[in-house]
């Protein structure tokens, strides 16, 4: 027990300092360490500690090892994203979004999601980022049945309120106005809509914003009062104009807007579909889809998994890969639990024909970052795959600018792995596309590629130039 307690403190210290090496040393000592932490229903995980401290790289690494930590609440009722948000760690909050946009919907203390917290604090930029990443999050309610709109108005964050309304209107398609109206007409535990709150707080701007939308002015709260009743009970200048606007508003009745429960779920990939992908059987793929038309959508909801595209790319089944990519393009950018994209796996398994066809469909797949921020270009540089380096660079020239979580370019990777020919090729490419600035970029230890190459006796330095020794 004392050993476990000591290890727990060492793990927390590693998380506070962002020491990934210490993390793996502890995992080597006790491979079940993270599982033991995960068994507790409420716990301050290493991800909570790293999130609070703003240790982005450590947080991303621990999320790969134990994705469930991202949705776990600590004893105070907060998820890692809640803590990062509270402590002003904006960069890390946005990194969480990139890993799993559903983290915006994780309910913490009093049912508050990160979106509610951002609205309460008036963090406009984060509100927009959250809603862009996860539009459905605007439907989440607190234990008081408050939407994000309620929270913003009750907190006096009128600008945040207006941004939320604007985002809501932009996100709701013409055939999906019911979603917009449902959120705008939602009642809290006292039966108040946001129109009631705007009226009770005498917020003319908010009232006008809402009346321009599809709100139901006839809805009553638990006291039997409409928003108009609340305004009539106040002696405020400007009320006459608002009363007139409400009187002229032709809102739809509440019976048109039944409550719809929001829910999310994760579905394991069907073994039949995996077998079809492993064998490249397109007919079997469509037979499965006929049985379950939503199977690909269900797979897409899992934040990290081996999709059929991952399986087909690894096995070199090009036609199956192209077929599945046509049906579900998002699979091409999804990472599996090892942090690899389909193109990365195709390259890793020397399925070069498949890699090239994926590249034909979307050249930007070269830039998809996997584990530790490694792209397919980084992998080709690490392994000295010269032909593939040329193909990837020709397809997507800007991929040379991509950096790992340690701020390493493909040149850093080549130099650190003693891939001299790859390094020469990359330097020549920079010269060709006039991107020599990349040579001056330092990694997170402050080393440029020139520093690394010099340390490894890969170059000779003169006053004006350097030559690579082949």
UniProtKB/TrEMBL annotation:
ANK repeats: from-to residues: 76-97, 110-131, 190-222, 372-394
Transmembrane segments: none
Keyword Hydrolase: no
Position of the signal peptide: none
InterPro entries: Ankyrin_rpt (IPR002110), Ankyrin_rpt-contain_sf (IPR036770)
Superkingdom field: Eukaryota
Pfam families: Ank, Ank_2, Ank_5
PROSITE patterns on file: ANK_REP_REGION (PS50297), ANK_REPEAT (PS50088)
Keywords: ANK repeat
Protein name per Swiss-Prot or TrEMBL: Ankyrin-3-like
């Amino acid at each position: 027990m004392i050993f476990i307690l000591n290890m727990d403190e060492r793990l927390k210290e590693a998380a506070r300092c962002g020491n990934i090496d210490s993390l793996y040393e502890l995992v080597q000592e006790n491979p079940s360490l993270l599982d033991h932490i995960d068994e507790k229903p409420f716990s301050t995980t290493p991800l909570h500690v790293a999130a609070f401290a703003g240790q982005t790289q450590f947080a991303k690494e621990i999320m790969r090892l134990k994705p469930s930590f991202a949705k776990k609440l600590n004893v105070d009722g907060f998820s890692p994203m809640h803590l990062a948000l509270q402590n002003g760690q904006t960069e890390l909050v946005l990194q969480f979004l990139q890993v799993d946009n559903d983290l915006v919907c994780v309910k913490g203390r009093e049912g508050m999601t990160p979106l509610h917290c951002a609205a309460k604090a008036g963090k406009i930029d984060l509100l927009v980022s959250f809603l862009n990443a996860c539009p459905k999050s605007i439907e989440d309610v607190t234990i008081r049945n408050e939407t994000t709109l309620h929270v913003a108005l009750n907190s006096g964050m009128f600008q945040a309120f207006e941004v939320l309304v604007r985002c809501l209107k932009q996100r709701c398609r013409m055939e999906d106005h019911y979603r917009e109206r449902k959120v705008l007409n939602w009642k809290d535990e006292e039966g108040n809509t946001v129109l009631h709150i705007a009226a009770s707080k005498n917020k003319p701007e908010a009232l006008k914003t809402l009346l321009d939308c599809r709100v139901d002015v006839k809805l009553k709260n638990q006291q039997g009062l409409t928003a108009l009743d609340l305004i009539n009970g106040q002696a405020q200048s400007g009320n006459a104009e608002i009363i007139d606007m409400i009187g002229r508003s032709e809102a739809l009745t509440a019976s048109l807007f039944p409550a719809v429960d929001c829910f999310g779920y994760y579905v394991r990939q069907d073994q039949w579909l995996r077998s079809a992908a492993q064998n490249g059987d397109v007919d079997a793929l469509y037979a499965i889809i006929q049985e379950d038309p939503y199977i690909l959508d269900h797979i897409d909801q899992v934040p990290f998994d081996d999709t059929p595209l991952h399986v087909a790319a690894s096995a070199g089944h090009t036609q199956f890969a192209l077929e599945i990519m046509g049906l579900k393009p998002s699979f091409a950018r999804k990472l599996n639990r090892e942090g690899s994209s389909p193109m990365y796996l195709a390259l890793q398994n020397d399925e070069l024909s498949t890699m090239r066809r994926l590249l034909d469909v979307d050249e930007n797949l070269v830039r998809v970052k996997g584990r530790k921020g490694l792209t397919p270009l980084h992998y080709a540089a690490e392994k000295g795959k010269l032909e593939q380096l040329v193909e990837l660079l020709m397809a997507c020239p800007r991929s040379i600018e991509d950096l790992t979580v340690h701020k390493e370019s493909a040149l850093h990777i080549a130099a650190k792995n003693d891939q001299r020919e790859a390094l020469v090729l990359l330097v020549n490419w920079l010269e060709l596309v006039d991107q020599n600035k990349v040579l001056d970029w330092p990694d997170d230890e402050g080393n440029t590629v020139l520093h690394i190459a010099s340390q490894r006796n890969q170059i000779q330095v003169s006053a004006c130039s350097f030559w690579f020794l082949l």
